[in-house]
Every structure is written in C-alpha cells, then in structure tokens.
User: Which sequence fits this backbone?
C-alpha cells in the first residue's frame, strides 16, 4: 500500500479534500461501516410506547420481529423527548430481553438466606392472605372521635415502570381496601 493511498484512506483527509467538508457523509464512512445495516431494518412492525422509568414520559419506538422485541429507540415524533432517551431509557431493551430478567416468582422466607421458586398461584394466595390480615389488624373505624374507616396496616409505593393506567388501577384498589398511604416513585 503506497503512502498516498494510505493517507487517502484517512477520514480527515477525505473530509478536507472531498465533497463532504463537514464530515457527515462519505468522509466519515469506512468500508466496514458501509457494510453495516441498522438492526431495526428487519423488524416486522414498530410499536409506539412510553419509557417506563420516570414521570417524564419519553416516547419510544419498539421494533418487533417474529413477536420478539429486537430494539427500542427514542421516538423522534414524540413532543416530549424528540427522539432522545436518557441512559436508563436507552437500556429499556434489557427489561424485555435481558439475560438478568427473572421469569419466575422468587420468595425468601423470613430470616432465610436462599431464594426459592414459587408458582404464581401460591404467590398470589400468599399476597392476598397477607393483605387481608394486615387490613384486619390495622383497621381504624375512628381516631380521636373522628370517623376514619381506614387501615394503616399496609401502604402502596408504585414504581415508575408502571404506566398511568396501571397506577390509576392500583390507586383505586388500595383506596377500596382502605389504605391511605399510597404514593408513586415517579412523584417522590
């Protein structure tokens, strides 16, 4: 390889001597980058969504191929984020396809050191039994002569990964159960 050809392969040289002085096109491309294809080019469909991490509500495009999520990117049509995502939002794909994602109910007994798998029905029954017991034990009909009809036996703290509809339903459920201590991480 001659020196002239070697220098001609430098992006800065191509930028300075070619038709791309700002380095936004051909000057910035190499042979390897020419052969690259976007990982979203094979997607069957694009589903509009909202980032689940905080209350900002950045728009996301979820790319799906064969009923599997293959990529999640910022939605340029979103008036909130205009296609941008923070580092947590950019890592949203890990929520659906990450190797660390758990697909089973795990339970650690009181004072236990190991996690054990439970089937979903058993876990739901345990939660229901504990909610009923906490409600019954912490129920207050009145306090200081004022009618309260509430329980201080449990509280709710929602996560920012819940959307508005899920938070609305959880608020309604906890209110119907008599809980008054209901908050959401997105507001905290």
Assistant:
């Amino acid at each position: 390889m001659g020196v002239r050809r070697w220098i001609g392969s430098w992006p800065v040289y191509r930028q300075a001597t070619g038709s791309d002085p700002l380095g936004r096109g051909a000057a910035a491309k190499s042979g390897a980058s020419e052969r690259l294809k976007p990982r979203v080019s094979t997607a069957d469909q694009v589903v509009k969504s909202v980032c689940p991490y905080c209350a900002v509500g950045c728009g996301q495009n979820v790319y799906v191929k064969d009923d599997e999520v293959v990529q999640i990117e910022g939605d340029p049509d979103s008036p909130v984020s205009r296609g941008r995502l923070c580092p947590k939002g950019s890592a949203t794909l890990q929520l659906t396809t990450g190797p660390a994602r758990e697909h089973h109910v795990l339970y650690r007994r009181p004072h236990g050191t190991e996690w054990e798998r439970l089937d979903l029905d058993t876990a739901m029954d345990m939660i229901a039994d504990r909610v009923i017991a906490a409600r019954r034990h912490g129920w207050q009909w009145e306090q200081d002569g004022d009618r309260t009809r509430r329980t201080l036996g449990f509280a709710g703290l929602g996560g920012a990964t819940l959307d508005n509809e899920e938070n609305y339903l959880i608020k309604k459920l906890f209110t119907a159960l008599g809980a008054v201590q209901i908050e959401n991480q997105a507001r905290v």
